[in-house]
Write a structure and sequence with these properties.
Protein name: Cytochrome P450
GO cellular component, one term: endoplasmic reticulum
CATH architecture: Orthogonal Bundle
CATH superfamily: Cytochrome P450
Strand order of the largest sheet: 1-4
CATH class: Mainly Alpha
Keywords: Heme, Iron, Metal-binding
Largest sheet: 2 strands, antiparallel
Number of helices: 3
InterPro entries: Cyt_P450, Cyt_P450_E_grp-IV, Cyt_P450_sf
Number of strands: 8
Helix content: 25-40%
Oligomer: single chain
Structural class: alpha+beta
CATH topology: Cytochrome p450
Distance between the termini: 23 Å
Organism: Corchorus olitorius
Length: about 140
């Protein structure tokens, strides 16, 4: 179950469910040479953070082992939002995903129809064919 938790974290790192999180600048800020006045509304593009190679080495690679001894800095991993905008059901979601995957892995086999197919990366990594697969019941 420890490895399953890493698989879930890696999956939601690569394919976050929300496009962006709205925020308001609480003070005048300069970011990468751009001036953002206090009160302006900004969108935090979550995939840009989760796929940043300065934070996650080889970000396009699905690697659950990256979570072995990795504790993300504040603001670098927030698939369920953060602060007052955090999803109150995030822990429940991860538990439900764990239960589903446990039973799915024990009872079914998944065969990708087009393995190695092309992937687009904006706004988030998605197989062009939507990852068509066959589900085969075991036993």
């Amino acid at each position: 179950m420890k490895y399953l938790s890493k698989v879930i974290d890696e999956t939601i790192r690569m394919r976050v469910g929300t496009f962006a999180s709205p925020r308001e600048a609480k003070k005048d800020t300069e970011l990468n040479g751009y001036f953002i006045p206090k009160g302006w509304k900004v969108l935090v593009f979550q995939s840009a953070i989760h796929m940043d190679p300065e934070i996650y080495s080889n970000p396009n690679e699905f690697n659950p082992s990256r979570w072995d001894d990795f504790k993300p800095r504040a603001g670098t991993f927030h698939p369920f939002g953060a602060g007052c905008m955090a999803c109150p059901g995030s822990d429940l979601s991860k538990i439900l995903i764990s239960i589903f995957l446990h039973y799915f892995i024990l009872n079914y086999k998944l065969e990708q129809v087009n393995p190695g197919g092309p992937v687009i990366y904006l706004p988030a990594p998605d197989p062009i064919d939507n990852c068509l697969a066959r589900i085969i019941k075991l036993r």
